[in-house]
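Hi support team,

I'm filing this because I wasn't sure whether my run with adenosine-5'-triphosphate finished correctly. The job status page said complete, but I'd like someone to confirm that the output block is well-formed before I use it downstream. Pasting the exact inputs I used:
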Amino acid sequence: MNDLQQMRDKAASVFEQLGFPTTREELWRFTDVSALANQEFSNDWSPASVDFLPLGEFYLVFENGKLSPEKSNIGGLPEGIKVGSIMDRADDRFGTLADTQSAFVAANTACFSEGAFIEVADGIELDSPIHLIYLADADGAAFHLRNLISVGVGSTFSVVEEYIGTPGTAYWTNAVTEVFAADNATVDHYKIQRESKTAFHFQTLEAQLGKNAVFSNHAIALGAALGRNDIRGKLMGEGGEAICNGLYLLNEKQHFDTHLFMDHAVANCNSHELYKGILDEKSKAVFCGRILVRQDAQQTDAVQSNRNLLLSRGAKVHSLPQLEIYADDVKCTHGATIGELDEVALYYLQTRGIDPARGKAMLTYAFANEVLNEMKSTPVRTYLENLVHEWLEKVSG
Amino acid sequence: MALLDIKNLHASVAGNDILKGINLTINPGEVHAIMGPNGSGKSTLSNVLAGNEIYEKTEGEILFDGKNLDDLVAHERARAGLFLAFQYPIEIPGISNMYFLKAAVNAGREYRGEEQLDAMDFIDLIEEKKNVMNLRDDLLERAVNSGFSGGEKKRNEIFQMAMLEPKLGILDETDSGLDIDALRIVSDGVNALRSPERSFLLITHYQRLLDYIVPDFVHVMVHGKIVKTGGKELALELENEGYASWVGEEGP
Ligand SMILES: Nc1ncnc2c1ncn2[C@@H]1O[C@H](COP(=O)(O)OP(=O)(O)OP(=O)(O)O)[C@@H](O)[C@H]1O
Ligand SMILES: [Mg+2]
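And here is everything the job wrote out:
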C-alpha cells in the first residue's frame, strides 16, 4: 500500500492547493459550498440506527462510514464475483479514472477509510443487483467513501448504491466510485440518494467503457440540503453505449447539482442522457451536461435531454448543456425545458371527476415515471416507484 | 324537473363576449342537437358547462340536476354526472388509460357513496364496455390518447362516457373525423346508453350523425345565441340551405 500512501499524500496537497470551490469558479457559479467549507467534521464513530430494505440477495451495509459485516450479506456469492471492503484489496487501476483536479475527489483520495470493492470475472451473469447501502446518522461526521467496481469481459452485472440518512442529522458524505466495464460487458448502476435533508452529499462517479460495453447509470436524488453528482463516462472502445438517466425531487431549500461529462473518445459509440427534475418550494437545481466528441469519434450518436417541472414559483433551475464536437460526422442533440404542470391536462382529468390535488399528483408522477421506466431491475424500479409516490404525497399534502 | 336548465347565459373568454344569452332546457331522457357555423360558440358552451375556468360566465344561471353549477367546480360537475366528450381530446403522456379510468370511475363512486372498485371488478367493467366500443386492448394500456389517431381519440371519449355512465353526455363534434364504421360504432354506443333518465347534447355539423342518434330537438346557434329550435327535420333543412339566412342578419 505504499503507492496508496503516495497517492494520498499527493491528493492531500492537491486539496491544500485547490481548497473548496467558490462561486467564482465557472462550474460552481450557482452552487455555494461555503456552509460545508466552514464546518469542522469529527472522526468519532457510532453505530447507525437507520432502517433499510435490501433490494437483492447480496448487500453490503456501511454504518456511518464503516462496513458492518453483521448487517451485510455476501455469503454464497456465485463463483467469479468478489465483493468486499476496498481496504482489503488492491487494483492497479485504482484512482486512474477519478478526476484529480476536483477538490472533492482529492479530499476523498486523501481521507477515505472505507468503501466497496467489487470484481466480476469474465463471462459472468448475475441477475440480482448487489446493493451497497450507506447508512448515516452521525451528526458532524464526514464519510469519505471509495468504491471500485470492475466488470469483466462479456459479463452482465448490476449494482445499487443507496445513501440513507436519518432526518435531522447533519453530516457530509463525500463518495467516489470508479467503474470499469470491460469489452462486451453490461453494467447497470443505480444510485439512490436519500440522505438527511440537513446533510451534504457529494459523489463523483467515473465509468470507463470498453468495446461494445453497455453502461447505464440511473441517479435518483431526494435527499441532502446540498447535493451534487459528478458523473463522468469515458467511451474508450468502439460500439460502446452509455446511458445516464436521472431524477431529482426537491423541496424546501434543497439544492442539487448534476454535472454530466460524456467523453466520446472513439468512433461508433452512443450516449443517451435523460434527466428530469421536479422542484417544489424554494429548491434549486443545476444541470450541467457536457458532451465531448473527440476528433476520432466519428459516427457518434449522443442525445441529451433535461426537463424540469416547477411546482412552485420559488423553485429555480439552471440548465446548461455544453456540446464540444471535434468530429464532423456525428449526431448530437440536446434539449432543455423548464415548465409548470399542464393546466389543460389537469382540466381534462378534472372533467373526468379527478380532483386537482389527485390530478396534479398523477401528472407529476407521469412526468417522473419516464425515468423510472428506463430501469431494467424490477425490484429497484418498484422500490423507487414507491419512494416517488411517497414524496409526491408529502409535497401535495 | 329539467336535467339541465340554462337561462340567459352570457360568457366571455379572453375579454371577448362569446355566448350572448343562451336559453336551453333539457329534460331527462331527451336528446338535443346543436348545429351552427364555425366560431358560433358551441364548444364555448360545452366548456362553460364542464367548468373550464378560462371561460368566464358573465350573466345568467345554469341548473344541473337541481344544482346551481356556480357552486360546483369541474371535477364536482363530473362527479355529479356531467360528461363532456371533447372536440379535441387532450393527450396525457405517462398516464395509462386503465389507470386514468380507474381513478375516474372510483372518484365518481366515492361521490355517490358507492364502494371503490377493486382491480378485478374494474377489469370486468372494462371488458363489458370495451366490447361495445370495439376498442383495441393496446389502446387501453397506452397513455391517455397519446399517439392515438383522431378517430381513436373520439372513440376513447365515448368509451370513457360508457365507463362513467353520466346523467348528461355532451358530445362536441364526436362525429368529426370518424370513418363510416366508427360513426356507426360510436352511435350504437351512445344509443345503448340512452335511457329515460339520461340525456344527451350533441354538437355536430353533419345531419348524418342524427340519422343514427335521432334527436328530439335541434337548435341552431349563431353568434352565441340559439336562433332557431325545431325537430329532427330542422337538421335536414340546414343541410340543404346552410346558415346563410341567419349569419347575415346579425353581425358578430
Ligand atoms: N380560449 C380561447 N381564447 C380566445 N378565443 C377563444 C377561446 N375559445 C374560443 N374562442 C373564440 O370564441 C369563439 C367561439 O369558439 P368556439 O370554439 O366556441 O366555436 P364553435 O362553435 O365550437 O366552432 P367550431 O364549429 O369551429 O368548433 C371563436 O371566435 C373562438 O375563436
Ligand atoms: Mg367547436
